[in-house]
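Hi there, hope your week has been kind to you so far. For a while now I've been wondering how a particular protein folds. I'm sending you its amino acid sequence along with the backbone structure tokens. Could you read through the record and tell me how the tokens relate to the sequence? Take your time with it, there's no hurry, and the full record follows here.
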Amino acid sequence: MRHNFRRPARNARPAALPTAVMAVVLATAAPVTAAETVPFGAQAPAVPLRVATYNIHAGAGQDGVFDLDRTAEAIRDLDADVIGLQEVDVHWGARSDFVDEARALADTLAMRVFFAPIYDLDPATAEGKRRQYGVAVLSRHPVLEAENHEITRLSTQTPDPVPAPAPGFAEVTVNVKGVFVHVYSTHLDHRADPSVRAAQVADMLEVLAADRGPKILVGDFNAEATAPELAPLWQRLRDADPDGGGTYPAVDPVKRIDLVTVSPGITVTGAHEVATDASDHRPVVTDLKLHRRGH
């Protein structure tokens, strides 16, 4: 289901959305800016955008201690305009104090957020709220639309699971100074058998093919860029940091499984992973330039 984002009226409380579909927070929303006027025949200036991906391990650090303030500070230090998050708890359980992490991080960082649950379970108690776990996107820029797509998954919440479509592939359309860019946050299957990941890659590419314009896909792929099951991605997208260092585990990483990928036409001007102990993964930050369409 797709949702159009609008700026809430001053001092008005945004209407609640069905949590089974999505959870949305708009923080310190700014008006949508129109595209800059460029004289006919002139070259439109490129628009800079800093994008990051970060598996936050439900707010627990490499030490296993839950500390969402530490997580927020690690995200703040990235100084990114748009961040794809993975392993986000929303009232999930005791491990994260039943906190709505998506809302709490958005409020702390004064950013907009779209949360896309993978799992949406009954409350732990009669008075509790629905237990959700999934991915999210934080943005400094206006979010025009958002959607929680289904891709193939092998559930960790049911006995004897079989691969089946399930939600948790987040897409937002962000207005970056007049350039509309699609940003996707994903978390692929962790098992050694690559077959589910291969199916997920095919599903994600089908979603991307339905969208026009620049695209940025970020996430925890649970596979390195050279893995055979990721090969189809590189026919449509480019690894923004092919020479980057490891991202997992956060201390002395041995694998680069957290990736930022971009569609043709997006220029990568810099990329690096960031050492931190606020999660068991290291975040990856990329500096990009988005190019306006010519006249």
Notes: Confidence is low (pLDDT under 50) at residues 1-42. The first helix runs from residue 68 to 78. Residues 46-290 form a domain with the Deoxyribonuclease I; Chain A fold (CATH 3.60.10.10).
